[in-house]
Each structure stands twice: as C-alpha cells, then as structure tokens.
What does this fold into?
Amino acid sequence: MIAVDYRETLVTYLNSDSIESAAKNLNITIASLKQRINVLRKAGVNVPKKTRKAALTPLDVAQLNSLVKKHLRDSA
It folds into this structure.
C-alpha cells in the first residue's frame, strides 16, 4: 500500500486551476483526488472548493460567436 502525501496533494490542489489539472499533475484520477480532499476536510483542513474546468473559456465563446456572425453575413 502506498502512503498518501497529503502535503503534496494539498499544495498541488491549491496551485491548480481545476480539479482536472490537479489530478493530472498528481498522476491520479479525479475520483482519487476528490477522496483525498474529502479526507483532509473531514480531518478539519479548510480546503477551498474548486469547480471543474469549464469546457469553453470566454475567449472560446467570443471566437465561436464571431464565426456565427460571419457565417450569417456571408449566407445573407
């Protein structure tokens, strides 16, 4: 059985933009990371919540909307 390094888990989690990137940096699954964070919270560590990374960034949305407008202009 491998011992869990909760310090490394916490530091990586806090320095990551999302749950996915933290899990990737730790080379574990998202489910494993959530379980580790839950253990820390139950122990009394005030771990902030992170959301899943959005599929589309505001820049992506703006670029896609621009494509739609261009298509509508060209097809009119």
Summary: Residues 58-75 form the longest helix (18 residues). The chain has four helices and no strands. Residues 6-75 form a domain with the Arc Repressor Mutant, subunit A fold (CATH 1.10.10). The mean pLDDT is 89.
